[in-house]
Amino acid sequence: MNKALTVLMGIIISFTTVVKAQKLKSDKIFSLAEELTPKALVNLKDFVAVANDSKIQEQLDKNLNYSKGLLENLDFNTQIITTDGVPVLLASKTVDSSLPTVLFYLQIDGQPVNKSSWDQKDPYQIVIKEQLANGDWNTIPFENSSAPNKDWRVFGRSVSDSKGPSTALLTALEYYHSKKWKTAFNVKLLLDFQEEMGSPTLEKAVTENKSAFDADYLIIMDGTRDVSNKPTVTFGARGIVTATLTVFGPKEPLHSGQYGNYAPNPVFKASRLIASMKDESGMVLIDDFYKGIVLNDLVNAELANASMDPLELNERLGIAIEEMVSNSYQGSLQYPSLNIRGIQAAWTGKQVRTIIPDKVVIEIDMRTVKESKPEDLIEVLKNHIVKQGFELIDGEPTDEERSIYENIASLSFKIGSKPFRTSLSSPIRTLMDDCLQPLFGDKYVLTRTTGGSQPIAPFITTLGVDAVSLRIPNPDNNIHAPNENLRIGNLTEGIASILSLLQTQIQN
């Protein structure tokens, strides 16, 4: 072999070495994930410190710029795609154009906070705590997180939903970047800054920028694990419809002494109306609410994979008996749900007054499944209200309407995320099995759907990609509530899952 050919072969071998994906054994992946956990906690601390209420434009912009800087430091190409004034961030890194591409969806915004309801000074400054034998929580100084206990928890807004899962992914990518390792596939990241608002412009963004979002698979870094807290891959999500039902009483709040026993109290009318919507077992009584839903033997077999002892779950939730829509927790998620998420009538607590309220406001959410169109659920809800003897109007009733109709109500609604469901026999299942089985054996869960909602349907309908959700947070994480938390052991397992995924070859 002449000198020139030797040099050429050396270049080829060198290039091949660079582009070949790193391959670690499962024990090395776990030890590496444990080694990276303290760094991930620092990353999460810095990320959570960027307040992320997407209703506040300044906070949205700060998260956009912060995320963009993080990804550019990892040599990702970034692109801000703005649709109707709302930005999303798309980042990409191509290893080899002949390889498949995996698009990761990351939710960056979080629910608003009421600082007075949290057991820490500032929900945007994370606090690490351990639970004592008596159930109380003891604060751990952050400097002790260099050697964290897996059962310690990180408390702060969005540590679970969903900056924690995002941090697990970004920490793994940061390590790959530091070692100049190559992933087994091309990577795209989509960062959504208005998920908690229903991602109102995301569908249009995907439709108008199809080629930019093009990918072979979609993996969602959002959502809570199965109630067993085993590593979880979820193949679908329910959609959501929200509605505001107002039941009207007198024109103005009335003194209960002067007008009690004379002026009808709308709270009782609202109570009877609400009670008519569900029976004591939890079954929705609205005609055609469950129309079109059939769980066959194949579906029931899939649900059995993620079954859990209801007594154990009920004890965790603090309930005596579950609703009987289905015979299991997973089975219940296959049906649309009707939930009263809030009721307001006059005043309570220190502000309570002896009055007959002028109205009752009832906030409703309905979770939809693929078999139930949101428009259909709205229509059957309207029909039910009318059957109960109410006149449905728009806005406030006029004097004439008040004089004619005994029962008056108004109903407004908003359609949010649409449901999606990927088949458990999809090729993306092979990818996830190849990723998780070496780490966890058979101790991970595949679930057909989750009860929550995710704005993923546009990717499936527009891009034609299969999608799953890789779930990291513990199920008892107080999502959307005060004292939201993330178990550190879950974060470590999440990092390990991502490290394994990044080296997993996608089978054709």
Helix content: 25-40%
Radius of gyration: 26 Å
- The CATH class assignment of the largest domain is Alpha Beta
Note the main sheet: 8 strands, mixed
What is the number of E strands?
21
Choose one word for the global shape. Answer: globular
Q: What's the mean pLDDT score?
A: 92
Taken together, the total number of domains comes to 2
Distance between the termini: 37 Å
**CATH domain topology of the largest domain:** Aminopeptidase
CATH superfamily of the largest domain: Zn peptidases
Distinct helical segment count: 16
Low-confidence stretches: 10-19
What is the CATH-assigned architecture of the largest domain?
A: 3-Layer(aba) Sandwich
Q: Which percent range describes the beta-strand content?
A: 15-25%
Write structural notes for this entry.
The chain has 2 domains: 311 residues, 3-Layer(aba) Sandwich (Aminopeptidase), CATH 3.40.630.10; 136 residues, Alpha-Beta Plaits, CATH 3.30.70. The protein contains 16 helices and 21 strands. The strands form 5 sheets. It has an 8-stranded mixed β-sheet with strand order 1-2-7-3-8-20-9-19. Strands 13-15-11-17-16 form a 5-stranded mixed β-sheet. About 2% of the residues have low confidence.
